[in-house]
Amino acid sequence: MKKLKIVAPTLREKNRYIAFQVISERGEEFTYSDLESAIWNTMLDFLGEEGVSKTSVWLLKDSWNQKKQTGILRCNHKSVQDIVASLGLIDRLGDNRISFKILKISGTIKSIKSSTSKNG
Amino acid sequence: MDFYDLHLHSEFSEGESSVEDFARRAKTLGFRGICFAVYHKDRKQVDRLKKRATEVSKKTGIDIFIGLEATTLEELKKLINIRKNYDLLLVGGTNLELNRKVVQTKEVDILAHPEYNRKDSGLNHVMAKLAAKNQVAIEINFREILLSSKNTRSHIMHHIQKNVKLCKKYKTPIIISSGAVSHWQMKDPKILISMGCLLGLELNQSKKALSKTPENMIRMIKERRDKRWIRPGVKVVE
């Protein structure tokens, strides 16, 4: 498939990357897909479909570390507060009680990866 | 920046987690201090909590404060008389009469969830003005939002937004707390700040609600512990 022409920097959306850690009651009992569906369902409930569409949110699958239970979310710079507040509303994955710790919010994936690897 | 969560309920009141669990979680999430609210029904229970809090505070390095929570006018009167015996005085807002009395009382530190179980926001412009004058902080309780859903959550958030608007207009202190009854309900300071922003606060105001306003209250606790302190605005001068 032919790729789209790259948009000019001034027209590009400014991204923010949110590194988070999941603290769970029963360790590594949940999977990435459980977490992904919980995040999407909570955001859709809280912000609505129209609200979520404005956030450009995406959960980066490659960045999920099952052992450390850390991951990275991407969104645009205007909706960081909406996304972080939504994460706070997730308190369970099935019967497993969880809580989110926000490790870092950054504008580049490079800096967020270096900081999470240092902390880990 | 130091963050404080000033409304938690441990197993000594209506909560389910131990003081130690809360303190450990607070340290993980990056809080400098926490405050346990307890109802003044059993004095021995309060003394036991105080003792446990001192032990855990030494062990974990987290500042732990004890707050007494009143839910009726009679309880409030009793607690004002023994104000020097504990750190913070919280009043759980339910009825309008109580909310009005609370904002007029200098001894009260926090009016917790004024909109709780009400069909209105529980705070009007006169009360917001009085709260600012008497330095009574209005609480944004995260647990209320967390445990509700759909239309109930939207109503609660609407009422909190109304209160925030009044507080901003009259420069009334605001605090954001998790209101947790279990250490699993404690939230990262960044999450609480973000929720504050969604409810109408500016980012710096939201940060202030979690750090500077609680710090001012803690400063007052230290002043109150001084032997020369009698009541707000009155102390012995040698």
Write the layout of secondary structure elements.
The complex is a heterodimer of chains A (120) and B (238).
Chain A: E1 15-24, H1 32-55, E2 58-65, E3 70-76, H2 80-88, E4 92-93, E5 96-106, H3 109-119
Antiparallel strand pairs in A: 1-3, 1-5, 2-3, 4-5
Helix pairs in contact in A: 1-2
Chain B: E1 4-8, H1 19-29, E2 33-39, H2 43-60, E3 63-70, H3 73-81, E4 88-92, H4 96-103, E5 110-112, H5 125-133, E6 137-141, H6 142-147, H7 150-170, E7 174-177, H8 189-198, H9 203-210, H10 212-225, E8 229-231, E9 234-235
Parallel strand pairs in B: 1-2, 2-3, 3-4, 4-5, 5-6, 6-7
Antiparallel strand pairs in B: 8-9
Characterization of the model:
The complex is a heterodimer of chains A (120) and B (238). With 120 residues, chain A is an alpha+beta fold. Chain A has one domain (15-106): Alpha-Beta Plaits (2-Layer Sandwich), CATH 3.30.70. Chain A has helices at residues 32-55, 80-88, 109-119, and strands spanning 15-24, 58-65, 70-76, 92-93, 96-106. In chain A, helix 1 (32-55) packs antiparallel against helix 2. The longest helix of chain A has 24 residues, at 32-55. The mean pLDDT of chain A is 93. Chain B is α/β, with parallel strands linked by helices and 238 residues long. Chain B contains ten helices and nine strands. Chain B has helices at residues 19-29, 43-60, 73-81, 96-103, 125-133, 142-147, 150-170, 189-198, 203-210, 212-225, and strands spanning 4-8, 33-39, 63-70, 88-92, 110-112, 137-141, 174-177, 229-231, 234-235. In chain B, the strands form two sheets. A seven-stranded parallel β-sheet of chain B has the order 1-2-3-4-5-6-7, with helices on both faces. A two-stranded antiparallel sheet of chain B has the order 8-9. In chain B, a hairpin with a 2-residue loop joins strand 8 (229-231) and strand 9 (234-235). In chain B, helix 1 (19-29) packs parallel to helix 2, helix 4 runs parallel beside helix 5 and helix 5 packs across helix 7. The model of chain B has no long low-confidence stretch (mean pLDDT 93).
